[in-house]
Design goal:
207 residues, three-stranded mixed sheet, two-stranded parallel sheet, 9 strands, 21% strand
Length: 207
């Protein structure tokens, strides 16, 4: 999904302007007004989740940090939100996951849902976004929603007993995933066991 986006860097998106509700740098308008056009309610950048090329991440954040004097302090989401919607040199480089295929925050779509986000539904051990009908790869427990992590994480599909046996875990850790080179080409494969030595043993031991 990231490669299909055609962007070098993709941020997660959220539907409520929470952390952004503060003045933008250099006397600009409120950062909440600076958002990309979105086909879904998820229109505000969430910098807690992103995926991209290392060079693009460095380039974008260097541009963001250069946009304000060093003595000023601003929320990172406000800075990124403004910069990628107003800086021409970033317009084709950065995107947002408006359809929640990659990421979704537990951060609610309105404050009435603070304790039980209604924009998400748990079904068959997977969180589904109610407004896009997609199952995101990553669920981000941002801000005050971190208090719900233990409760929600225990209900996910991989916590089922059938996935906790030694044999099942060996199949997981022996799986390989492609390793991409700098130009985006496939430069080989790496097993989960090689990337995370001892993971199977720790997982089988349980929390």
């Amino acid at each position: 999904t990231f490669l299909a986006s055609g962007k070098a860097l993709v941020f997660g998106a959220e539907c409520m302007c929470g952390k952004l509700a503060q003045p933008a740098p250099r006397g600009r308008h409120d950062a909440c007004r600076a958002h990309a056009k979105s086909p879904t309610p998820y229109r505000y950048i969430n910098t807690g989740t992103f995926i991209g090329r290392a060079a693009a991440i460095e380039y974008v954040y260097d541009s963001v940090l250069r946009s304000v004097p060093t003595y000023m302090r601003y929320n990172d989401q406000a800075l990124v939100q403004w910069e990628i919607t107003h800086a021409q040199h970033l317009s084709g480089l950065v995107g947002a996951d408006f359809y929640t295929r990659l990421f979704i925050p537990m951060w609610p779509c309105n404050l009435d849902d603070a304790n039980e986000p209604s924009h998400l539904q748990l079904a068959d051990g997977r969180w589904r976004a109610q407004r896009t009908h997609n199952v995101p790869a990553v669920v981000h427990f941002s801000g005050f929603t971190k208090q719900h992590f233990d409760e929600y994480e225990r209900s996910l599909w991989y916590r089922a007993e059938k996935y906790r046996g030694r044999e099942a875990m060996q199949r997981v850790v022996s799986a390989h995933f492609p390793v991409l080179g700098r130009n985006g080409s496939n430069s080989g494969a790496l097993s989960i066991q090689d990337a995370c030595p001892g993971y199977a043993d720790r997982w089988a031991a349980g929390p």
